[in-house]
Specification:
Elements: E1 9-12, H1 23-38, E2 101-104, H2 113-121, E3 130-136, H3 161-170, E4 174-180, H4 187-190, H5 219-234, E5 239-243, H6 252-257, H7 268-284, E6 288-294, H8 295-299, E7 315-321, H9 322-327, E8 329-331, E9 334-337, H10 342-353, E10 361-367, H11 376-385, E11 391-393
Parallel strand pairs: 1-9, 2-3, 2-11, 3-4, 4-5, 5-6, 6-7, 7-10, 10-11
Antiparallel strand pairs: 8-9
Length: 394
Amino acid sequence: MKFKNKGRKIYKTKEKNYYGKSPVGKFMSGALTVLLIGGIGFLGYSVAEPIINYTKHKGDEPTVTEPPVIPVTTGAADVTASVTTEPVTEAHTEAPETYYTAVALSESALQNADTLRAALSALSSEEIQFVELPLKVTGGAINYASIVPEAVTAVKSSMTLTEMIQEVESKGFEAAASLSVFKDNSLPIDYPDAGYVKADDGSQWVDANGLPWVSPYSQRAIDYNTNIVIELTYYGFSNIICKDLVFPDFSKDDLENLDPVLGQNDRCMSLTSAANLLYDKAVSNGASMQIEISAEDIICGRTDILQPMLLSSNNIILNINLDTLTNGIVHGENEYQFSGTQAEKVEKCLELVSEYLVDFNAGIKLSGQTLNKNEIPEIKKVLTEYGYKSLIVG
């Protein structure tokens, strides 16, 4: 939708009729464009599994189909090898009626065994089944002693995965791993072929902050994240949460200087192909995989990954950051403001984004320094009204 140049529009989210095409309309428009360009005949939805399979008994060993083999790539990688345009042809089953509560720890908790024990001891075991560990975070830092060669300079903790799982399980919880996939500014510094390159001279693209990003069109980047998933499942993680499956906010000038595919509607296939590969590796080793997307990404139009007909995993975690809502969200000429109690802010946020998630088995993650845990019971009531049955806090 085009806007007249009358200054920034401010959207009070208590008003449900904000301007522009509805989320469903935007999604359907994009989906139809992909169908026309690719000529793909979709045969159905993929098989869904629980967002986190909390019925799995502790002590069950994952089925490891391969050791953590770390392929070494040298020189320019074949960036087309991992990208497939084949749609998922399996049929989704009805989403199971599950409810779980998990807690996500901060990076500081993974400095060493003492900090992890302290963080775990501070948790109340009541209603908590899972503890989410931020093992690869936004920016690219690795918070465990990874043996993946490309991870050497990104490793920030000496703790092993086995030690972490033992500490978590000793407190009566199950461990889940959080993995940032493409918001990685570390890997392209050491391996430029892992990032975006300019079409004219092959130089490395950087964002407005001077940072490179990992590209889903880089075979090295795909191998790197795949090897991390193999490593996590091999050493015992049965639940993997993959986040930051997004493209940067390319400017018009950026798109003119980069590969033309980055300006096309079917670029979503590179993200879904990467997600499906990570899903396959996780499942083949006895683990489950979920995809996390932030409410801010949805509001700002970064929804390429939300393609239910292309994704193997039907499980989505919506991250609602209370800090972000409190500060407001600016997207182009539009400003979205959230006021009231935290439960009211969450409700207003869900009014904007829930339509994007109707085809998924979705759970909610509440995050941010300003999150008031005393208000969580009221927030849960809002989530229940919207049909969300699972919650991660942290």
